[in-house]
Amino acid sequence: MIFEVAAALDAPAFVYDLAGLDAHAASVRAALPGVELYYAVKANPDPALLRVLDAHVDGFEVSSAGEHAHVSAVLPKARLAVGGPGKTDAELRLPAHRVHVESPFELRRLIASGVPADVLLRLNLRLETTGAALAMSGPFGMDAEGLAACLPLFTDTVRLRGVHAHLASGLDAPALLDLASAVMAQHDEEVNVGGGMAVSYTSPGSRFDWAAYGAGLAALRRQSQVVRIEPGRALTVYCGSYVTRVIDVRRVHGETFAIVHGGTHHLRTPATKGHSQPFTVLPTGSGPGVEDTPVTVVGQLCTPKDVLASGVRTSIRVGDTVVFGMAGAYAWNISHHDFLMHPKPGFHYLA
Questions:
Q1: Catalytic: which of 73, 219, 252, 302?
Q2: How confident is the model at residue 91 (pLDDT cuts 50, 70, 90)?
Q3: Dihedrals phi, psi of 246, to nearest 5 degrees
Q4: What confidence tier does 134 reach under pLDDT thresholds 50, 70, 90?
Q5: Which of 79, 120, 233, 270 shows a CA-CA span of 20 to 30 A to 155?
Q6: Measured between alpha carbons, how far is 59 from 127 in angstroms, rounded to an integer?
Q7: pTM for this one?
C-alpha cells in the first residue's frame, strides 16, 4: 500500500502503516501465552502507534519523565514501568506499575522519597551473548554484589517484586531463550527478560520467530512466575517507511551518489547501526541518472556521514521517489533534527 501513495506525497515524509502494525502486534500477542508483553517506548513514541499497540500490550516501558508524561497524556490508563540507568529524584517519584532499580544507591534514594513502589532489580549478568548486535554491559544494572546490597533495604512500602534482565539485543529466538533460561532458573517470582529480538535490515523478509520464543518461554515458566518481555524495535520497525526524492545524481572519483531530500537528520538508523537502509526506487523522475549501477544514497547534510545506503546496485534518476523501509523504530525519534535546520518531514498514517 505504501508504494501506491508514496509518489503523491510531499517528501520527505514518514508513513506509518497502522493496519500492518495492528496485525503484527496481534500475531506477537497470540504467540506469547502466559507472558506479559510491554512495549519499550524508546523505539518509537508516535501517539498513533501507541494507540494501536495499546490494544495488544499489557503495558509500556518508559525511560524518562518525558516519556512518562507523553504516554500518560496519550493513554491515561496505561500501565507503565519506569526504567533508565540514571533516574533523577523526580523520575523515581513517578507513578508506575514497576520501577526498574539499577543500583543500591538508586534504591536508597527511592526509599528516601517516601513514595510507595514495586521494584524490579535490574541485573547485569556475565552471560554468553555471541552474535548480539549490542550487549547491555557497562553501567546498566548491577552485579551479584550490588544485588546482595539491595536485598536488606526493602520496606513495607518499597517492595521487591522480582528482577529485570535485558542483557543483549539482536538475538534470534534460541539465543534469547538461552539467556531467559539462565535468569528464570535463578528467580522464582517476577522476571522481566527484556527485549532484544533480532531485526535484519539486510534481509527484511526474515522475521524473529515469535512462535518459537513464546513456546520456549512457556516451557521455562514455572507456575509461580510472572514472565514479562519488553520489545521495542521488533514490534514497530516494519510498519514505518521514509519517503524522499532524488535531488541529484553525480559521479565522484568513480563512485555514484544519489542525493535525496532529507537524510540522517530524519532517519539516523543506518548511520547508527552502520548498515544500508533497505529501499525501493519508484520511477517518478525524468532527470539524469544511472541504470543498474552501484549507488550510494546520501542526504543533504554537510557531513560525509550522512549516508542512508552504500553501494547498492539500482537504477535511479533525479526526481525518482525513494521509499526506505523498516523505518518504524529508532528512526525519526533518535535523529538530530535541527542540524542545518532543514524542514521537518511530514507524517502520514495508513489505516
A1: 302
A2: very high
A3: -80, 130
A4: very low
A5: 79
A6: 28
A7: 0.94
